[in-house]
Amino acid sequence: MDDAELRRRKDLCALTVDRIDRATPSSRPTPRLRFVAEQKSHGRFDHRLNEVKVAVAGVLDDPALTDGMIEAVVAHEMGHWADPESATSIRRSVIVTFSCAGLGVLGAIGIAVGTNVVNNGTLMLMFLAIVVGFGCSLALSPIMQWKDEYFADRFAAEATSADTVISLMRHFQAQETRSLAIEHPSRARRIRRIEVDALTESAPPTAY
Fold this sequence. Notes:
mainly alpha, 3-stranded mixed β-sheet, 3 strands
């Protein structure tokens, strides 16, 4: 892809951010747009910096992505920007997951102190306590964070179209060699949710 086309696509991203910002009431100021060489999830919204990141590799330099699909990438991240509950959800998720992991470690320490004996049986119990703690943190993470992804998907579908977002998801799904991090639902699950929302004409909640 030549530099002129890459520049045009970057300008398209900037216009999409501006369009959504003007059309969406939000307590946050206009986010900064930054292009990064590579991003595991193709795009990301950083709440702390109020910044939308879009990957060049795999997004802007991919000729298979239409203008609409590129807009959908940006619109999804703007969905996180517009979601009034997203920052709270992230903080809640961090507190809950780290608390579970911490309880596992404390349980292991409690076993060691309570038995006052270090042998294979004690070490096994300590190991199991840690595994249970971290297992609970991993199990709770999707419950705490998946709704944010669904909100952003619905927001992107409203800002572009459901068909465009689904096409984008299927494109990325075909390229994936492994699943995204556990805090993201699978592409297949997200596609089904978008299809259901489209059938029921469900719109995302207004973000204030």
